[in-house]
Specification:
alpha+beta; 4-stranded antiparallel sheet; 3 helices; 4 strands; about 25% helix; globular
């Protein structure tokens, strides 16, 4: 898997402001996140979701307090999956 990342959002944890989660959006429009909600919960159909990815999917991430950055050109989906899954 080598999907290109188009955008990255950083969200502060609600319970600990010293922790930040990254939500990635890929060229195909799909999202992923490295928060516990995303990494620990899997629906029966194999899909994953969390509030951060839902904010991005709904288009409301841009109006929330967060830090948005352009994806680093050398960041790829293989690295993101490694970080997200904790493997």
């Amino acid at each position: 898997m080598n999907k290109q990342i188009t955008r990255v959002w950083s969200f502060s944890s609600d319970s600990n402001p010293n922790i930040e989660y990254e939500t990635l959006q890929y060229t195909d429009g799909k999202t992923s996140c490295n928060c516990k909600g995303w990494t620990r919960r899997v629906a029966a159909d194999g899909s994953r979701s969390c509030k951060h990815a839902r904010y991005v999917d709904m288009g409301t991430a841009n109006v929330l307090p967060f830090r948005q950055e352009n994806a680093h050109p050398n960041l790829n989906a293989d690295l993101a999956i490694f970080v997200i899954s904790g493997l």
